[in-house]
DNA sequence: TCTTACTTGAGACTCAGTCTCAGTTCGGCG
DNA sequence: CGCCGAACTGAGACTGAGTCTCAAGTAAGA
């Protein structure tokens, strides 16, 4: 029993793969806990490995850098999917705002808590923020790809890239706002900013006063 | 002769300070050269120190990290100054685009070359890009401060922060565009993007197709 | 059950970054 | 001019990230 079912359409993982997934998840779980409690810099790769009961070598086999451990994520694909599920005709910025809200709302409590720790670290620890910004669903390239597809233009079309830059900028703004007022919820703030932008860039035409 | 003139309004540096400035500049000069020729990762702090004929310790005394050496910059203050010099009444985005162009044009050839290497590294080497984005004149916080002052609003005003995010996003877009087509000049591209945005966010109202 | 391929732990190695200490050099003052 | 204190430098030890190699263990498949 518990044999790998090779014939069925969905290839069932098998013991080896299941073990790997479990180890990876364990490493992340302990890492995030330690980062939260002791701080990122004060947590060594050894600490994490020890907590997850594997060797340091193994830690780096699963995650190329200490930052990468924060990247592991079940949520980003959900944003993507939610966006693709938006009905045709929806204006882009609204569609993005909405898909963020629905994707985040669809998370169960455990995942949401995990996600909040991740976003907190992203705002707090510069190295992590940088990595996340580059490899996230909301990096310029990723948004450009997503949006280009949605409007039927190439991902390197100037307008598409500029639009993607604005969306990434909206995220930067949201992070800055939450940093200034930690009571704000990040996802909500991000979605709000996108909706503000749907009515035009604030201050775009504001003149300089002396 | 060559005595430090303490009485005159401008405090003349003195030997010590001059030496420091020279060492710092030398370190940067060699570092950028080595980064360009060998690559960032393949250049060790020892290499740079040796090239500039100082000890490794001294290198880290001048620059807290290897990335920081790329940050040293005479140009950013020029952008600031050029922006502040824009006539009252100029709309913000135009003012930013213009001040970038004039500041960059005011550089002599040597400085401009240096600046181009820096921007190239910023686009090419992720670590450097990240540091530059955070500590640059065009980071969200810096833009918010500059713009808040210009429109007479606090730097943590929501509109100001969102606007600053858009400007930072414009930079991200410009970097992405140059990455796709290295023949573009970065500064020009950045200014162009800002001017595009002055006419509204492209695709903002574009609907999703299918 | 036996072979093969993947996975792991141990440990050596390089390099970034921090810190301490001792020696040197500059600046200022008598 | 000569001396003292402060700033600067180089040497070297130390921690921790990240890479690599090798030997031992374990799942997969026949």
TrEMBL record, chains A, B:
Higher taxonomy: Bacteria, Bacillati, Actinomycetota, Actinomycetes, Pseudonocardiales
Pfam families: TetR_C_14, TetR_N
Gene3D superfamilies: Homeodomain-like, Tetracycline Repressor, domain 2
Organism whose genome encodes this protein: Actinomycetospora succinea
Name under which the protein is recorded: TetR family transcriptional regulator
Domain of life, source organism: Bacteria
Stretches assigned to the HTH tetR-type domain: 21-81
Alphabetical list of PANTHER family matching this protein: HTH-TYPE TRANSCRIPTIONAL REGULATOR BETI, HTH-TYPE TRANSCRIPTIONAL REGULATOR RUTR
Membrane-spanning segments: none
């Amino acid at each position: 029993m518990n044999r790998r079912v090779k014939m069925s359409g969905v290839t069932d993982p098998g013991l080896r793969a299941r073990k790997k997934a479990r180890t990876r998840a364990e490493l992340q779980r302990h890492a995030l806990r330690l980062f939260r409690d002791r701080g990122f810099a004060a947590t060594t790769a050894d600490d994490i490995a020890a907590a997850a009961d594997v060797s340091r070598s193994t830690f780096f086999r699963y995650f190329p850098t200490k930052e990468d451990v924060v990247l592991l994520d079940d949520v980003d694909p959900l944003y993507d999917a939610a966006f693709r599920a938006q009905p045709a005709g929806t204006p882009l910025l609204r569609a993005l705002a909405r898909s963020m809200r629905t994707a985040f709302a669809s998370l169960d409590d455990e995942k949401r808590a995990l996600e909040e720790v991740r976003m907190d670290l992203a705002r707090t620890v510069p190295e992590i923020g940088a990595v996340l910004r580059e490899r996230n669903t909301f990096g310029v390239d990723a948004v450009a790809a997503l949006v280009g597809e949605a409007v039927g233009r190439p991902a390197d079309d100037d307008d598409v890239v500029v639009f993607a830059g604005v969306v990434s900028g909206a995220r930067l703004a949201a992070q800055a706002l939450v940093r200034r007022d930690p009571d704000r919820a990040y996802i909500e703030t991000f979605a709000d900013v996108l909706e503000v932008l749907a009515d035009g860039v604030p201050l775009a035409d504001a003149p300089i006063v002396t």
